[in-house]
Design a protein that fits this description.
By secondary structure, this protein is of the alpha+beta class. The chain has two domains: 2-78, no CATH class; 96-143, no CATH class. It is built from five helices and six strands. It has a two-stranded antiparallel ribbon with strand order 1-2. Helix 2 packs across helix 3 (102-114).
Length: 144
């Protein structure tokens, strides 16, 4: 079973896509995650591999398999909303996303999602700043 691993803590970042057999990688991904703050509250569904992250984060679970989608503040609606936006971007804007560049598309939609409440002028300024900080993607690197 494939499971997309998402940390949603007032912002959203996609860490990696993991299978059940790669459960041990979740803890490593969480430790290496630069935006995650140890001790933050993490809400997930009942995917068993998430149980390993209790040592790093306060963790609450909703049990989708049992029909439970909200338990107090615990829910995964924000992450599910993000995936819906990404899918609409795929179908409505890009029509095709290659596996090679999928992370770049996901990063773009993370940026859009995390800055959705900012004024357009602020978003533009942030975007220009990021463009000037990052290395250029050459055409050769793009197509190879």
């Amino acid at each position: 079973m494939k499971k997309s691993f998402v940390l949603y803590n007032d912002s959203l970042d996609v860490l990696d896509e993991l299978t059940d057999s790669q459960a041990g990688q979740i803890l490593k991904a969480m430790r290496d995650f630069e935006n995650g703050k140890i001790g933050s509250q993490l809400y997930t569904d009942e995917f068993l591999s998430y149980s390993k992250i209790k040592s790093l984060y306060a963790h609450k679970t909703v049990k989708h398999g049992a029909g439970q989608y909200v338990d107090g503040k615990a829910h995964s609606n924000g992450a599910e909303s993000f995936w819906a936006l990404l899918k609409r971007g795929h179908y409505g804007i890009y029509h095709y996303m290659s596996k090679k560049h999928l992370q770049m598309y996901v990063n773009e939609f993370c940026f859009r999602y995390n800055n959705r409440k900012m004024q357009i002028s602020e978003v533009f300024g942030e975007m220009v700043e990021r463009i000037t900080e990052n290395k250029k993607l050459s055409y050769k690197a793009l197509i190879t």
